[in-house]
Amino acid sequence: MVNKFLFLGLLETRSDGVKMPLHEVIRNLKGYINFLKESDFILLEEKKRRRAPAEKQASHTSPKSHPTEMASKVEALKKVADSIAVCTSCRLSLGRINTVPGDGHPLTRVVFVGEAPGYHEDQQGLPFVGRAGKLLERLLAGIGLMRQEVFICNVMKCRPPENREPLPDEILACEPYLLKQIDILKPLVICALGRLATHILLRTNAGINTLRGRFFPYHGILLIPTLHPAALLRNPIQLPDVERDFKLLSAKLKEITGQNV
Ligand code: URA
After folding, report:
1. Tens digit of pLDDT for each residue in 135-147?
2. Cβ(115) to ligand 1 under 6 A?
3. CA of 29 to the centre of ligand 1 (A)
4. Quick one: CATH architecture of 67-257?
5. Where are the domains of the chain?
6. Residue 154 CA: which ligand 1 atom is closest?
7. What CA–CA distance (Å, rounded) separates 190 from 200?
8. d(Cα 19, Cα 174) in Å, to the nearest integer?
9. Ligand 1 lined by 185 (C-beta under 6 Å)
């Protein structure tokens, strides 16, 4: 209301009754627009345009998504997490502090799948929160993404003792949870983090260096393997390779959706 009156006031005839020349009206209008730019009104509009990451819909989230889709995905993901929380299908349930179902944006188009929770993840019930997680966040930032905009999880939802590799029967017991999550999220691209996640998902024993940076079909979804961030911490010489893989992922999303990440 206040803005409207100010606007009308700017267009009024001057107090001496003389009509304002057009250039003066234009100058006043420019001043008014500048005023709006600095006011809450424009800030609100800006806020709508530059939506918060959780609401942002670039190529990493679904453009057709609407609140009910969001709500149903949240609910479905929670159901999976609830099942994981009480799972006793394998011996890993005996040693866990917390289950680690995964975490991220329900409408994302990109899912990152690691191997299994480590010490910090087990403590907090969240994936990739240790040093490897920090590096993963840096790699995501390199392609303009924040971890809240994607979904991050592991093949295994419980920490193996002393971070040993999961055994075949443990993988068999846990994999359905991941498949269910992927079925709910319906991402356009999955990134397998590391040799083990790649081998489990693609049912291959080929070397990670021959697999990384290429796209493979996985249940109708494109899957790109890359090196595990923990492996990179041990051997940073391959960091540029992984950065390239992330750029490939980003370019693929752009190619599919026509949008920038
Ligand atoms: N390594 C993984 O594979 N997953 C995590 O969540 C943390 C470290």
Report:
1. 999 999 999 999 9
2. yes
3. 56
4. 3-Layer(aba) Sandwich (3.40)
5. 2-49, 67-257
6. 4
7. 13
8. 78
9. no
